[in-house]
Specification:
Largest sheet: 6 strands, antiparallel
Order of helices and strands: HHEEEEEEEEEEEEEE
Helix content: 10-25%
Radius of gyration: 25 Å
Shape: globular
Distance between the termini: 67 Å
Structural class: alpha+beta
Low-confidence stretches: 9-20, 308-329
Length: 329
């Protein structure tokens, strides 16, 4: 009887301590968010590069410390509207990304990722280090948190197929005054840890391709988004014969319109003939291409049906171009 009573007391004490601990973490995270909000304003709006990048270093230090709290994954950081925060629908990971503008016209990308370790069921935090200049082939290399093709991600696509979950990020890279980039970036996680792996062979009939990078002229508007898109498919059906009994049935090819969620992007072409591989002179051709996910691969769809004009209150669902933002990107 005495032992049973003591167990109840210990259980109640543990619950109280847990509640106090959770409340203390919430308070610490609120304080960190207030500090981050002030630093973010300086990071994006200060006049000099020195002030902006100094504020960014402080921002990184405060965010790094805040994300170490065990309850930080569920903390929303709602007031940090200047940075992109995306969470996978299954709560397996969350990614923070932002860019700081330099007076030379270039953008430096920064980020953190929190992901659940499947073996421990706990979240781990990794800082993302932008090594774009050290990556020889940006479309064919598998990358990591320490070797990252920097971008500000504006959409996170999660697809579950045959018991496996696939994640794909859409991102924008301000790069420099000569060109901009948008990126289709598959992301996965190592089996025995939560360490991220950027890039995967998930593009149909393109085994060496790990991601798709679109580079284009800095003055052009390039669309890359996740959209519920109409497209046409050819369908063969048997038609009955004519009026005479001996007339044989024949086949008729018809076009059928279907609708499906897919990645949609502008096809790029050189602005002038003979410019070769100078991506800074590439602009949308006027054609739109899609990628739909099927049997573990992104497959190209070229016969898209142009959409009607956007209706009132209709949202773009991911076509959020940070390059037009007042906060420098």
């Amino acid at each position: 009887m005495y032992l049973c009573h003591m167990k109840r007391i210990v259980f109640v004490l543990m619950m109280c301590l847990a509640a106090v601990g959770a409340e203390a973490q919430e308070l610490m995270l609120q304080n960190a968010e207030r500090e981050l909000q002030q630093l973010m304003d300086r990071m994006f709006n200060s006049r000099s590069d020195n002030e902006r990048f100094h504020a960014n270093e402080q921002f990184l230090a405060v965010l790094d410390n805040a994300l170490e709290y065990s309850d930080s994954f569920d903390y929303p950081f709602d007031s940090l509207g200047g940075i992109s925060i995306l969470t996978s629908p299954d709560k397996q990971f969350r990614i923070f990304t932002w860019a700081v503008f330099s007076s030379e016209g270039s953008y430096d990308n920064f980020g953190y990722i929190q992901a659940k370790n499947a073996s421990t069921d706990e979240y781990e935090t990794y800082r993302l280090w932008d090594r774009s200049e050290d990556i020889f082939n940006v479309q064919e290399e598998k990358l990591s948190d320490t070797m990252w093709l920097g971008a500000v991600y504006y959409d996170l696509i999660q697809i579950k197929e045959d018991g496996k979950t696939y994640y794909t990020l859409l991102g924008w890279d301000g790069k420099d005054i000569y060109s901009k980039r948008k990126i289709i970036e598959p992301v996965s996680f190592r089996r025995n840890s939560a360490r991220p792996v950027f890039g995967a062979s998930v593009f149909y009939r393109q085994k060496d391709l790990k991601r798709i990078v679109f580079e284009y002229a800095p003055t052009t508007a390039f669309n890359l988004k996740w959209d519920n898109q109409y497209y046409t498919v050819k369908e063969i059906r048997k038609a009955k014969g004519g009026l005479f009994k001996k007339t044989r049935p024949f086949q008729v090819e018809e076009q059928k319109t279907e609708k499906e969620w897919m990645i949609v992007y502008d096809e790029l072409e050189p602005m002038y003939d003979g410019v070769g591989n100078f991506e800074q002179l590439y602009v949308p051709s006027g054609s739109v291409v899609g990628l739909r996910f099927e049997r573990g691969r992104w497959r190209k769809v070229e016969n898209l049906v142009p959409r009607n004009a956007k209706k009132k209150n209709e949202q773009d669902n991911g076509n959020y171009d940070y390059s037009n933002q007042r906060r420098l990107y």
